[in-house]
Amino acid sequence: MECLVDLGWSGTSTTEVARRAGVSRGAQQHHYPTKMELVGAAVEHMLEAQRLAYETAFAILPKERRNVAGALDLLWEVFRSRPARALMELAVAARTDEELRPFCLDLNERILEMILETFERLFPANTLPEDAVPTMLRGLFAMFVGLSIQNALDDDAAGRQREVLTQIKNIARLIVPDGGAPVPAPGAAPEPAGPTPQGASS
Question: Of the candidates 12, 22, 80, which has an alpha carbon nearest to the alpha carbon of residue 42?
Answer without folding.
Answer: 12
